[in-house]
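Quiz preparation item.
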């Protein structure tokens, strides 16, 4: 059974089609990367996967259950960062992580331990007692990622998770993702950074103009050239009225 299954997903905003006939799966223990230009549909797909929007067509299942019917316990096994990370600016870093743990069902007796472990994992200890409003953009990104990880989810949905991270933060996130997926956690990760996804992804799907137009080999040579060639081929097929799958 797939950790995440998206079938024939379709959505539009007013008269603009943003997703069309999208199929995508994430297997247990897999990092599935989603790459594409700005406006290609990455964030909309992830919002639909998390039930944040109701798509016009298609089905999303998490652990075999349609997303509309996932219960509180099911959502407690999911962690996400969509667009910019959400933090409570008036709370300290430790309080943000404690609150995220509690909101995801971690008992009060264990939430403090979870928060402290996540502080260590993301090397946020020096800022543990600082209000989030006083943090740099990069450290706010780390707090948002910590909030997605603190409850030990089994499925991660991360939209551009390396945004605002410095090289040390990117390396730290890479190691965390690889260690979690080695333990069976599944991840859907969007990114603009082809070199970075090649280091972490088991599969790389290219989304363009709201449709999955192909897969890249994460171990292949010159991913950037392959990406642009795939997008160009999709545009040429669209001009001829053909469908790319």
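Solution:
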């Amino acid at each position: 059974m797939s950790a995440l299954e998206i079938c024939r997903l379709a959505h539009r905003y007013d008269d603009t089609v943003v997703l069309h006939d999208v199929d995508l799966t994430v297997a247990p223990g897999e990092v599935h990367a989603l790459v594409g230009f700005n406006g290609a549909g990455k964030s909309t797909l992830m919002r639909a996967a998390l039930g944040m929007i109701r798509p016009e067509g298609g089905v999303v299942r998490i652990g075999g259950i349609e997303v509309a019917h996932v219960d509180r316990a099911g959502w407690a096994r999911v962690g996400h960062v969509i667009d910019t990370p959400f933090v409570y600016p008036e709370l300290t870093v430790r309080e943000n992580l404690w609150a995220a743990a509690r909101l995801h069902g971690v008992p009060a007796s264990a939430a403090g331990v979870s928060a402290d472990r996540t502080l260590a994992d993301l090397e946020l200890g020096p800022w543990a007692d600082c209000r989030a409003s006083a943090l740099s953009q990069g450290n706010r990104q780390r707090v948002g990622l910590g909030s997605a990880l603190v409850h030990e989810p089994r499925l991660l949905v991360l939209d551009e998770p390396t945004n605002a991270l410095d090289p040390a933060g990117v390396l730290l996130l890479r190691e965390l993702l690889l260690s979690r997926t080695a333990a069976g956690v599944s991840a859907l990760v969007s990114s603009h950074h082809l070199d970075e996804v090649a280091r972490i992804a088991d599969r790389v799907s290219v989304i363009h103009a709201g449709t999955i137009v192909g897969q890249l080999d994460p171990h292949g040579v010159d991913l950037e050239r392959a990406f642009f060639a795939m997008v160009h081929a999709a545009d040429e097929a669209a001009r001829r009225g053909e469908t790319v799958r």
